[in-house]
Amino acid sequence: MIEIKFEGLDFFGRPIFKSLKTESRYGSTDILFNDYVTEQEVLKKITEKDLCYFGNSFGCEPMGDFVTNIKIKRIQ
Fold first, then answer.
1. pLDDT tens digit sequence for 19-67
2. What are phi and psi of 25, to 5 degrees?
3. Which residues pair with 71 in a beta bridge?
4. Other C-beta atoms within 10 Å of 65: how many?
5. Total count of domains within the chain
6. Do strands 65-66 and 70-72 pair parallel, antiparallel, or not at all (unpaired)?
7. Domain residues for 39?
8. How confident is the model at residue 6 (pLDDT cuts 50, 70, 90)?
9. How far apart (Å, rounded) are the C-alpha atoms in residues 57 and 40?
10. Is 64 left (phi over 0), alpha (psi -120 to 50) or beta?
């Protein structure tokens, strides 16, 4: 299972999540947010089904490959 945590929003307002074990990033190209959104608001709206593979660095272009076996973890 791929465990990820919310990392932030990119320039386009796409939510970005980072793997806890690798440099892989995941995000949504369909659900966008404004600059003032909180992490809690993102996590209420985004589910694992909304995410696709984005690449290995923040701000990279999405590859568009949807992933399975992924779990969002809340990190305190």
1. 999 999 999 999 999 999 999 999 999 998 999 898 887 767 776 667 7
2. -120, 150
3. 3
4. 9
5. 1
6. unpaired
7. 2-72
8. very high
9. 23
10. left
Q: Name 43's Cβ contacts closer than 8 Å, sequence gap at least 6.
A: 6, 72, 74
The first and second tokens of residue 35, run together, are: 């600059």
**Residue 67 corresponds to which amino acid?**
V
Please write down the HEC assignment for all residues of the chain.
CEEEEEEEECCCCCEEEEECCCCCEEECCCCCCCCCCCHHHHHHHCCHHHCEEEECCCCCCCCCEECCCEEECCCC
Show the tokens assigned to 19.
């793997």
The tokens for 28 are 């949504």
pLDDT of residue 76: 52
Amino acid symbol at 37: V
